[in-house]
Structure prediction request, 190 residues.
Amino acid sequence: MKNLVLFGPPGAGKGTQSEKLIQKYGFVHISTGDLFRWHTKNETPLGRQVKEIMNSGALVPDEITIAMLREEVKRHPQAGGFLFDGFPRTVAQAEALDALMRELGTAIHHVIALEVDEQELRQRIAKRKAIENRADDEEEKLNKRITEYFTKTIHVLPFYEKQGRLVRINGVGKIEDIFAAICNELDRKK
Ligand code: AMP
Prediction:
């Protein structure tokens, strides 16, 4: 089983690349953002708990996020490999993910960071807002999400880098070229 963490700021193209990677490699896709959106939309107790936090653009506390992720991973005992999208976003989450993988007798084999500068991110999110109208893409919330990324999530990179597990890929360019660069990396370390 090969597991991948796809890492990057809001608007880096994680969702787009995830879809293509799932099609090609058959990963089970776990997006904590999608899971939280499902819970809020369906007004589950968890959804009610996190709605305000999400709408403000802040990160959901680690304890809640990690518990949800563990449950989701355990729902797929037959998975050939997981693609984690939007998780981990803090060092505590990265450590919890390693512990969970160890419990399952596996590991995180690839950590790919999609790198996109802040100006490009804001332009992309403005475009997405026009199509999807996500509550957390509004400017104030977007600022908060980008700040959360550059103050908290960015620290996850050195965590993986120190262990020699991080691969940085330029996330600006044609979708197909970025996809090819990611596939190249996955296939290189088979
Ligand atoms: P995303 O679609 O990945 O940008 O996630 C949307 C929102 O869900 C984030 O702004 C957070 O409020 C929450 N969220 C998603 N993943 C995480 C995570 N790993 N840790 C904390 N909060 C998260």
